[in-house]
Fold each of these.
Amino acid sequence: MKNQTNHGFLGKAHEGAMYSSTTAGEGMKRLPSYLIVFFLLTSCPPIAFVSASGEPSSFNTFSGGLASVDVSLQGNVTNDSAALDIPRNVTFVTSGFQLNVESQDESPGQIWIDVGEDGTYEWEFTGTGYGDIGSQNQFYDGSEFYILPSPSGNSTTPGVLIPSSATLQSSSMEASFSPRSGGGFFQIGEYQQVIETDVDGDGNPEPMFLLKIQSNNSTSIVWADWNSSSGITISNPVQTCDNATSLSVGDINGDGNEDIVAFSTQSGHACVHIANGTSFDPVVNSTVTNGLVKATLGDIDADGADEILSINSGGILAFQSWNNTTAGLSAAVGEMITPNGSVGMPAPLISLHVGDFFGSGNESMLVMDSSGHWSLWQYRTGALLGPIVSFDDISRDEILTDLDGDGDIDIVGSNDTGFAFRINNGTTWQLNSQQGQVNFQNSTIIDFDKDGVLELLSPVSAVSDGSPSTIDGNISIREINSTNISLQSSEVLEPWSMPNSILTMDLDGDGAIEHVVSAGESARGVFIGGWHSIELDADGDGNPEMSRTGYAGDSSNGLSPLMMIDDADGIRDDLAITIPNLPTTVDGYGVSMVNVSMNISTTGEGDFNFSNLEISYDCQFFVGQNPHLIGNLTNSLNQQMTGGVGNLTIKLPINSTKAGNISLTNFFATTIPGAPNFAIPITPVLSLVTLNETMVEFRWNDPVDYGEDFIEFEIFRLESPTESVDLLNVYNSTVFNETIDSNVEVGATYWYLVRSAHLFGISSNLSSPLQVTIPYPPPPGALTGLVLTDVAPDQGGELELTWDHSTDEISGYEVYLQNSSFTSTAGLTPFTLVSSSSNSTILSGLNNGQGYWATVVAVDQYGNKTEEVVPVGPAYPRNDDPSVVNLELVVSSTTSVGSAFSLEIKPEVDGEQIIPAGDILISMETNIGTYPISTNWDSISLSDFLDLGPEFSGVTGDVIIWANYSGYPGDEQSRPISPSSTSSVSTVTVKANFTSTEDNYELDWENETSVRVDLTAQYQSQQQLLDGSEFIWTAYNNSTGAIASGTGVIQDGFNQFIVNFSESGILFINLTGNSWIDADTSSLQIPLLQYGSSSGDNDTQNNQTNQEPWSPDTMLDVTLDCGLVIIDPTVDQELNCLLTNPNNYSLEVSLEADGWSEWPDYILFEPTAGQGDFILEGFESKNIEIRVDLMVEDFANSGLPTGLMEVDLRQGPYEYTSPGDRPITFEIRWNLADQPQVVIPDPEDNNTNQSITEDKKSTSDNTMLILGSVGAVAVVCLIAFIVIRMRNSDFEDWEEDDLDMEPDVMENSRVSKPLPVGVALDEIEDRTIIDESPDRPDFINEFDEDEAVSQNYSDNDDAEYYETESDNSGITTDEHGTEWYEDEVGVWWFRDPGEDDWSEFVE
């Protein structure tokens, strides 16, 4: 019994130990050592024996003299064929035998020996985890399979118990691994794209799929998500915009959640799905660009929100931000990318990537065009800057990843001659070009097997065999680094049939990479699974006995666990060496076992399932001791002994759980004469000595009452009235008759029993139970020093409660809070609990302004507390942050003397419309000072602004009405209120009449007239306020365009000024300056009459001028300037032309596109989209984009070096009914690139932009009429002027300069025009001026008479004309013999061969 383990009793009193004593309440008193020796010596021999001088005898055979006995067990059937033949009337001193098991025999399972079949086993092999004797098939907990959650890396298997003396013969075990991520094939259908996201924000990536476009053009998005409870699941489809072709995720609105954006290259739309925390808002479709090629998301401006980045077919790289206010995209900021080495033409962009490529913390954009030219662009101060870096050599199938392990992004991809590396050195990408073809398409680069080497994984297509049970196609493997790619490995990956793309990511964050593979034959979908490696190393020497690599799943979705099997006795070989060196554990029957744990490793987290364990062994067990009171086989045999003579046969009954074989050998026994005499000891009687909250003390009969063979008392404690006594589970033992149990709980009830133990396994009967209940201690005393106050400053809802610490031994405090006073906590729930180390707490979640009472009670470790209390209070929580007051001030927008004025002030306190405590002051800040107008919250409503006070009569213009609130400091229950101020602007006007003294004014013979205007205040007291008012006058003749203007200032209510104007017209007088003047009209229109004419529409009686609204009576044609037009057939070309409105009013313009070409079968000109109809403001210019379409492939060799672009449009006045609309055609000459330019003279500019109205080949009748009239008048004036000069001048002194008809002070503004070369003579309008004056020095005739004109003809057939100049005459001759001359005012004159008179050239 000395080997028994104490259950709950400790060795020291203060640790709650049970101990014995001779006197109640004293410490344990131990007997002197010599007395203990005496007791042991006197108690060892049997009580009675035959003769003290008898000689001992020994035995070593079983019944029948057998040295060994083979026992065949049938399972759960007792076999007593083994027995011992022993002389009667002897006492056994020692005894024992060996039980043998061999692996070649069938194991009987677990076995036990019950001598006397009394239910107390003399020996057994039935321990938990022992398994079958001779064949271990259980783990340490007795289970035949064991599921072990395993982290990534190394761990150990569950323990396996093996007898320490066993000789191992064979081993087998299966270990399957199911990764935490699960995996398998998910039939989501065919998809266009898969990207890595963290759409749910859990820190683990999710693959997101853009599914194939359906027949009705609809497109959907799904994603796969992993969580620890349900593994991998597929989301419900999210419908996105029709014909979506790509996908990206990012936080575009800056709220921290990943939003989804799908793009359609067909429509150029971005389909935005804003994340709202639990799902996504309805899709918002926004236009990105026409001709969209690719788009993605990235935060290139580092503002915390991602932008939409795009490239289009026009070579534009652009970005757009999301506007949270409009829920749409902002205007694009873009840059046209040009091909490498080219300028002015767009690059055909095909690829776009975004990232922090150089680790600078800023994201950049990397684009590639179809030639494989790459350029890097960055955002800087509102624009795109680049190219920062550019390179070539990779034209398709690029993969961006870190190839050299330095943390930045490298690039590898294919080109026409092989493939190339571009390795990032921190500032650029260095080239490493390679020969040979490698498949990078739909591939990925990853260290998939975690061996420290990167691999290129590429899908290898195959032809389906139509069977879903076979795998067609695979994933090829090549090792790759920053300098080279290895040959394709003979090993391939076979995740699922027909793979065609692969992406990798760690879905569950365990370090093992999952492969996301597009696959499937008749059913398309995605395979998701991790590639795992598992090993088992039995002896920890680094050489695994079991290992396996491959895809692993959890048997769902078609992917099985990864299995490894010990099928070559590998575990046996390693454990045979390991077991002798392991620590042993010996049970109560002397069975010595070792607990073997083996090392396992995995590349990812998951569950190992260990099963089919079988370790066979040979072993010998010694049957001798046992854990019962009887102690050993010797005492058991003694209890079978009887007196008398002859032999006694003692059977050895053996039973088992299964059928099998064992053998018994090497029996030995030593006896002495005389049979033992067994007397039953007295039963102990228990009595309680002490009982309190910390201990139980009780005693029983004195030890001397139990005889000389007494060994000890065994104490048992039960904790339930229904609990049975387990004689093997002794609570404590002692040689004394008293004990103290301090391992007690207050309120618990215990039952104690005691029996005495003697030699030969004899014991007394158990005592009657002693039942005790541990009492509670008195509750802690009332607390002092309670203080309840508001927490300040804070945002309210909190009180602070403090108190003095309790002087009692307590476990904590309970705080009670009520909104009325109370005297008992009975029936109340504590508001909060506070630890014993604190003496204060903050009470939160309270209502501001509500009164509260509080108290605190101390609670001891047993839950005792005082219920009668005295609370403190009331205290009031208060929000110390001042309330915010919003003031809304509503005032009359305009007012004046004699007009109504109103004011209303609306206060709002924390969103509630109430009038706050405190003062309000309303004042008006004016041009003459600031005046208070109210000190209360009442509205103001006056019929006359002047009712505010007489001082307000001088107020004019904008005034500011201020409302200033003083704020409120608050009180114990009321929250403070912050001061507030607001203002509103009102305009105070002065009503006046603005008039002219006359209805019209007649100019005198000097073209002057005196005009008076009056500005009269309607209220005489305000008349002086009008002084200083300014006006501007303009005299205008609508027919001739003549104009004169001036300004004036009102003084004393009027102004009189002189108008000098040489023609009749309209005099416009407009008040300017003071906007606060509220005149009946601010503009006067008065007819001006020429001297001697009469007024047509004048009411002289009323002295009123009938002023008609102005409308145009003429309309000038718009002008079109396209510059020099060169057609380049090698590029897609757009022309930019400037259209200008020369009128002072707006025009409606419609472009009438009909090919606009002189040669429509060869070339067409069309306006770009969106330019058909528009408004052109007065004098406004607008840029028109014209697209050039070549109708023949080899236009350069079509034989058209030049031609006309004929731009048709229609113009008409906007908001006027006349003049009427009319069509206009502009003829713009174009020249073919690299051809001689054909130059046509133009009176306006150096480009052939001829305006033709009504008909493309004829001039507008109206325009020609006007131009003809003007021209005729000019010719008549010129002739009259020449005649007058001739009559009044000396002919000998008459010089060419005398033709100058402009005053000397006027500067000639005419511009010299180019020679109209190339124009057929019949196209030139003849304006021949016939000189009928007498002979006189004529500057034209002088050229004929005095200058010799020599004509030289060019031998060059391609020359269209040639010119011959005669000295300094300025006359040139073209190839038709026509002479040309430009006078000093820029007018061209021509004379055909054989003619004497010169004609003015008009286009």
Note: The two ends are 136 Å apart (CA to CA).
Amino acid sequence: MGAKWTTQQKEAIDARGSDILVSAAAGSGKTAVLVERIIQRITAEEDPLDIDRLLVVTFTKAAAAEMSQRIGAAITKKLEEKPDDVHLQNQLTYLSRADIKTIHAFCLQVIREYYDRLDIDPAVKTADPAEIALLQKDVLGELFETLYEAEDEGFLRLLETYGENTGDQRLKDLILQVYKFSQGYPDPENLLRKMAEQFYMADGDTIDQCAWMPLIGEGITNGVEYAFYTLQKAYDRICGNGEFTAYGERLEAELEGVKALRQALEHPSYADWHQAYVAVDFARMPAYRGQEKDTAEWVKNLRNEAKASIGKLGETYFCYGAETQTKLISSLYPIAKALSETVIRFAEAFAQAKKEKLWLDFNDYEHFALQILTEPGSTKDNIIPTDAAKQMQQKYDEIMIDEYQDSNVVQEMLLTAVSGAYDGNNNRFMVGDVKQSIYRFRLAMPQLFNEKYRTYPVEKGGKTRKIILSKNFRSRKNVLDGINFIFRQTMSEAFGDVDYNDEAALYAGADFPDFDGLCGGENEMMLLDLSSEETEEQLTDLEELDKRQMEATMIAGKIREMMKAGYQVYDRGLESYRPMEYRDVAVLVRSIRSWGTTLDDIFGKEGIPYYAETAEGYFDVPEIDTVLNFLRLIDNPYQDIPLLSVLHSPLYGISADALTEIRLFGGDGLFYECVLRYLAEGAEEEILEKLERFQADLQDWREMAKELSLCELLRYLYQQTGYYDYAGMTPGGSLRQANLRLLLEKAETYENNSGKGLFHFIRFVEDMKTAETESSAAKLQSEADDLVRVMTIHKSKGLEFPVVFVADLGKQFNEADTRAAVITHQEWGYGMDYMDLDHRASYRTLSKTALAEAIKLENLSEEMRVLYVALTRAKEKLILTGTVRNLQRSVEKWAETADSVEELLPVFRLRRGRSYLDWIMPALLRHPQVRVLPEPWEPTDRGEARQFLDEPSKWKFTFLEKGDIYGAEQEKQELAEEQQNVFENWDTKPDYSGRKEEIFRILSWKYDHETATMLPTKVSISEIKRRYQAEISGEEAQVPQELQIPQFGQKKEGLTAAEIGTAMHTVMEAADLRKAYDADALEELLTELQQQGRLTEEEKAAIRRKELLTFFSSDLAKRMQKADEIHKEQPFAMLVEPKEVFLDDIYQNMEEFIQINGIIDCYFVEENAVVLMDYKSDRLWQEDAFREKYKIQLRLYKEALERVTDLPVKACYIYAFAPGKMIPMNFD
């Protein structure tokens, strides 16, 4: 596009002196316009601005970084033209401090500059979302305990209403849900109280006075209008046809009843509505014995739709009379009040907890900034700026807001406060596209954009103005024509919040040179009919595929077909066409959940490289879940699910049949017990070999876990198991390895934040998963990687791809948020059911019904905008795909919606759509090329008059059956078997290349110093000890049998011996060894350690106090108190020859060195010599057992100390807590 701006773009760049709303359609170059406007402002001939006089707010950090980069490049280019321009040189300098940032970054800046106006410590930090979620959980738990103890009547009633029989988690979830909702508004506390007060009914009030009456009337009207529409349509079809006289009379009577209900709705009286509703009568239709049975059936189906619509009103809005409805609303008042007050108390407690920890979260950013910038009493329509806001107003000459359609009311108030609006200096420049407002779940309010769009004039000269950018510089004309064709028929102000007229339509502005090869082409719709039956032969040879797998197979086949056919895309960097690559293709889906494993199966089998950001939480992605299962087994192997997962993983490859055999052999009990039994008595060599390898690995891991930090243990697991390398070999391997590296970072962060030990890290992960606050998986390293991108439509916003598949269009919309026990709405407050606690009966109230209907319609409008975002990502080729259960019935349903004389399809029918296909296909059925539909699903004559015979967009329709998918899969399987047979029977004797001997010589080469390759460069003391014990005994050391069975499999609770030993070690590490501890002093130390978080309450209780006191009163302790120096937890690393630590013959003549590392518990210096002490909590009682087990460890400690201190070690002792003995060690 360069500098060739359209008239509208030029106006957006040059307009000054007013609040400007730029409605920028998809691909219209809004970012380029915004950057050019900034450049023009800072390089103007007269009064140029400094770039730090502008506030530019973007939606994401990436957008802010991109904008800064573009501005920097533009300034640099200007400097090349004017190298001596001081002002331009300054702008390049100022760019790094320019306020081009996200709204959250701006809020944090405000807080830092004016923190003294808040009751917070300036040292606060932004907490990780996972930390915030865990803190919320803790605070909520403490609040509930307080409310239980106080026996708060409102809370207990709330618990009975919304709790469950076995606990209070459902109510806790509800509190957090309402809290999160309230945080999106300027004054959460006031909002919550107002929401509760809506249920208050004064004496004499009726349901007509309730706050939801307008919404109730609207919901009823929607149902009534749909019934009237379908009845009128049926009546018009048979009117004047003598064969249907009886039908006509019946329909006339029903139409009169519906008309009477319509008239009643014109006046706000629920009692009158109810009376009119009861009068509507759908009697039995008379029998039809004529010849036009198809018409009769069609009329009856329409009439049944009307009857169902009226019937649903009876189940929802008219299930009770006015008096009962009034009573239900009034009865909910104490419940709503208790809910709001509980949420408010939680908010206060949570705020205090954050304050104590010096934490902020993202909600704090906006609310603290709002507190700084606006006076109390400010509203969206009446901002009263504070002195701080007025100071910031002087700082900025213009406020530029990108993606304005996604702003919420808090952000609107913040940016208005720092603009010049209060003094009549209109200086806001707002850019967005309401058709792309898809963040309602983040409380975005497209109404803010729409309100300005409706009221701002196009004409210049006033204090406000709107500019419309409708030219698309991204896509081919046929793609845009196809998008316009669909949305002119489906999107309206009533459904989508946008009237898709000529202003909203897309117009081609991109130039694609002519090309003789295969490029561009028709838009495509590919539908898979799931009703067809596959042959018995196909099912015999192939596993049954689910619908996603079949759709993925269809997509993979299309990608392969395009690659094979040599499809070309235009590369603007090369300024020429080139063959399509995988990176040119994107597959967009509404929800990525379940698609990850599907694509692994299908795309992996097809050899199509792809990248998909998983929908699962980070800790649930397969590679991370596997490593976590390693850790769970190291902590405790008596856990069936982690154990089965690891044994079945590629590392050990034990099949499902083999696992079943192990279970049957072992009998009842936990699976690890079955494994041990099979190791002792099993017969199958292959299974035994794998189990023995697993058992040896497990023992090794558990030993290493005692010596290594969590991060080091993970690195060891990656290397020792080869799992990191394996992950890199699988489809999407680079991303899987990135996830594994990210786990190392998370483990290191956990330990740096005072996290302690493997056991607690696993519990930390489980808590985060329970709180549903897991962080995102690792990101793709390079956009240049040749991979098909698979992503959600939301993730694709702002991106573009040459070839786009919009998939899973048959997926039904998610309506879960309208079925919750309590629903919330930004305007209408709570929607709640009433629970009669005496009879344990639930009553649906008008507040719940009306809000559910309103939320459903708003969700559907957003889904329409989500679909628009998806379709507008395509540059050259748009392919829509989906599955339907029964194509014939689906087409008949779509044809009813398509059968309209108006260009806009009936909103009443669109609102009843269950999937994107229910909107797209009725529109496409009116396209001239739809005649390729296979028999017997041709559209009837009723739709002929409404087809757009002069429609410019070109579409190709492909309809597949399950047999087509299975047939293709069968052909591929047969080809693979044929290829495998060829290789299995390959004659290896002939010299095909003429270089057979040379190849075999190269492949059989052996390294001269091969034994050295088996030598580890670094080894821990624990590993040396384990190898030493195995070597001197001549067999592998067995796993210590001190393993804890999980709570669900044990009768008594408590810590394992290893955990108690770790706790004892913690006490010795913290103790002042120059101090003589008695029982009181020891207890004081333990309490202090618990308060510091170094001991849990359970660990403190498990400390063997008697054994510790025995040590502190021992001769060795008294000797230490008099020592010249005492050192604890002394880390060391030293180089030794292999023969010093390993007994195997292969190590005896090696000249290389290995590094050993470890941590010495304690040593002290007396009389210029060192005394070494290592304390052990093993439940051993014989001194020789200690000496034999720890001889090699203490000998190496002694050698390390002598090297480090340059002093002789005159004595080495083990202090054994169990027998209470000091055991001298002799290395002669």
Note: The first helix runs from residue 7 to 14.
